[in-house]
Amino acid sequence: MINILLNPLPLAISELRRHIFGVVIIVLLIAVAVAFGIAVSASERALRQACARAADRFDLVIGAPGSSAQLILTTVYLQGAAIPLLADDVLPRLQRDQGVEYAAPIALGDSVDQYPVVGTSKDFVTDGSRIRLVEGRVFSTRSEAVVGAAVKLAIGATFQPMHGRAADQLIDEHKHSFKFNIVGRLPKTGTAWDHAILVPIEAVWGIHTGALSGSQAEPHREQHHAASELLGPPWASDDIKGVPAIVVRAKSPVDAYRLRAQYQYRPAAKSGRDGGNYGGNSGGNYGGDNSGGSNTMAVFPAEVLVELYAVIGDMRKIMTAMSFATQLIVLLSVLLVIISALAQRRQSVAVLRAMGSPATFIFALVWIQGFFIIGLGAALGLVFGWGGSIILVNAFASDIGFNIVPTISHREWLLAASAVLAGSIMATIPSVIAWRQNNAATLR
Amino acid sequence: MVRDVSATLALQDVLLQYRNEHIQSVDISQTQAGFTNLLDHANWTLASGAQVALCGPSGCGKTSLLNVLAGIEKPASGSIRWGDVELAKLSARQQDSWRRESLGLVFQQFHLFPCLSALENVLLPTRFVALAPTAAMRERAQTLLARVGVRANADISVLSRGEQQRVAVARALLMSPSVVLADEPTASLDTNTAQTVATMLRDLCREQRSTLIVATHDRDIASAFGAIYDMANGKITLR
Questions:
Q1: A352: distance to nearest CA of chain B, Å?
Q2: Complex ipTM, two decimals?
Q3: What's the predicted TM-score (pTM) here?
Q4: Which of A238, A250, A312, B160 is the most buried (most CB within 10 A)?
Q5: Does the beta carbon of B96 lie under 8 angstroms from any beta carbon of chain A?
Q6: Other beta carbons within 10 Å of A214
């Protein structure tokens, strides 16, 4: 059996080499068709994994009633958008809860260059001592900041945050006069938080309520004043000047579910701080009315991700179907090219048979060539697809600050293998035609 | 390398019919409506080692007769025997094997493979049953190419037509076949080259005692053979 395939090999390779230009074109055509499917599959999985990884440290996110997807996009993926503020008593209540390991406020709205400045607590920075900084230390005063791994600002550097985010074009043209000093750097996570600058929530409150907004001429005096104040937690209700979201680390899954039920949105209990937001535009409201009920919305990020996966999954199905259709069309085209090329080789085949070549030699000769072209195309498609998925994912990931490296899994191998299998089966068609041709008539 | 296998030809009562639409010549026997008898219960015998020319007008069926003698085409009736081998009684695999080992073919259009060198073309029949030719075969191929005056590593596409036909002759003789069938081997060549190739073919076949049948319509080429057979009206007759 092996000999049947091996004996025609030198002739098969020589013939392919002679038509190298056409062979390369066909191989590339197949490679692109296969790569399309591979890229879609690998990209979708990589994005899904990256989304899940980014949400890992967020047990439960609590915000004011509204869009749960927007709440998760804002807190987990730092996709700046205006979200309503929570009532001021929510954070103290969560702090007192026995099932809460820590409850960290998350306040966005400012930025430095393209980096979002996030007001939060020490607990969130270290994830309750689970995270060790790769450089420096956690902030201990209002004028100190910790940067994500991808932030191109050195320890010891100072910055003045802008109101809004350049990336979202929500900057309203003013720079806060308060200066922060970078004291620590977080390890790389491959998430949007690598591009974030974390500052004490008290500093964000101070800046937006005016307590820390002195004139540019006297920043040092203000900074000295700010540094003298202690950082929370705990925070009293009076200290809290608006929190758009709270990340809760529960002590156990039971606590997480209890808290979720407890803070789940109930339409009957009307409250919240309608109109308040941290969006960074002129509608922002950090120092407004604190009154309102305890109306909240508690979201497990996984719930939102499941919905997101459903959307991505549907897109993947469509794209996969399209890639299959493309592969089929390309393979059929290749088949037609091989069959029409075979018509030009009828004489050669007849001569080989007349010289005593076994029918299996002819079959194998034609089959090897078809299989080689399709197999090489599929193999190249795997490589191109992987490369394509890197480009595709990075184009998307750069927008959301993800650092994603797509991998080739069994699904992509299966896709390439199915193309090879389909090709090897389709290659039998011209082989049978060559094998069964009327050699006497051809030689006459 | 000389083959001892007898290559006596005994063609008995062979009927070879074609549908009329496939036939262009009118100088042939017609016995049945719609059919033409290229061979009409024809008989033909040749001694082993004979060298004969087969003549006849274009379309009379010379190529078809050679196909029948090579076992490529089956007659409607009758038998073709080469020595002890009756072609009709061989299985398809045995016929392949017989053609590979005992038959050499030379075509009018050479039918070389331009993707292979001269040496690789000559060695092609060995590839049918083995991945690589033996050292002995390689040496014989090189010897044959030297005899016909073509470089072993020559690129087929740059060879002249005469050189290409000489490579084809070397390929036909590689396995030292007991039978060599040549179908208009000189029709594509100029007169001088044609004579050279024909002489070369006859000499090489004589050396290895192969039976040689050359189908030709070239009188000069035919006249060099000891025996000339004419094919007309479904019969083969000695001129």
A1: 8
A2: 0.90
A3: 0.71
A4: A250
A5: yes
A6: 17
